[in-house]
Write a structure and sequence with these properties.
The structure is a single chain. The chain has 1 helix and no strands. The chain is mainly alpha-helical and 60 residues long. The radius of gyration is 19 Å and the shape is flat. The mean pLDDT is 88.
Length: 60
């Protein structure tokens, strides 16, 4: 076992310093984050659908 195996895989990142960003960059950043959230939600939905299908297959 390596030392790296003991480290958490999903480390929290430091928040980005937004204080020097202009309004247009902040708006673009927000839009990019919304798109990323939508992408993650779609993946969650897909994985739940696959999990549900597998559960129903093995319950029969």
């Amino acid at each position: 076992m390596e030392f790296e195996d003991l480290e958490p895989k999903n480390k929290l990142r430091k928040p980005t310093d937004l204080s020097n960003w202009n309004i247009e960059d902040l708006e673009a950043y927000i839009e990019n984050m919304r798109q990323e959230i939508a992408r993650a939600e779609a993946m969650i939905s897909e994985k739940r659908s696959i999990s549900s299908a597998a559960e129903s297959l093995f319950k029969k």
